[in-house]
Design brief:
Structural class: alpha/beta
Number of helices: 10
Number of strands: 6
Shape: elongated
Order of helices and strands: EHEHEHEHEHEHHHHH
Radius of gyration: 19 Å
Strand order of the largest sheet: 2-1-3-4-5-6
Helix content: 40-55%
Distance between the termini: 40 Å
Oligomer: single chain
Amino acid sequence: MTTVLLVHTVPLWRASLASLLCAGPDIEVRTAEHGAIRDALGGPAPDVLLTDLDCPGALDVLDEVKSATAPHGGPYPLAVLTRSDRPRGLRRAYEAGALGYIDKYRPVDDLSEVMHKLADGGRHIDESLAFSLLQVADMPLSPRELSVLSLAEGGDTVAGIAARLHLTPGTVRNYLAAAIRKSGARNRLDAIRRAKEAGWI
């Protein structure tokens, strides 16, 4: 029996995904909302944690999972439901150590097999996500540099970015300079263009 802890904020989607998973052989599903993961982990340890990157608060869920420690001392096996046009979420899932990357547009008939595979220590990447995952895995920017560049792409000034991220303007300029250097760009606009073309922002 494989136990899956499904983390999703939207009740209807959570119930639907739980029903879909339970339809597979030897799958037990427990559910939790964003912010309640630690309470859900207080009982018997799940074999796999599954979340949807389109779920509100999904990136915070990744941070919660990343900081949680399984009884054996390592991280919990993490799987994410996502799409190939969500590079930022894929990047965060990759940094959180996700072992399963499941395309939301895939057939659902072997979803239970994927859960069993992850519970047994395997990995799973849907072919439709492989190229996007390779791109984000090779991305040279740090999460903070990416955040600063994303805000700059949205039109924020250095002062505005500093206020939003609780940084000094000088620190923001340093992050922008690092993003320009690491992306091989000539200036900030060129760095934004390259990041967008690569799907980083």
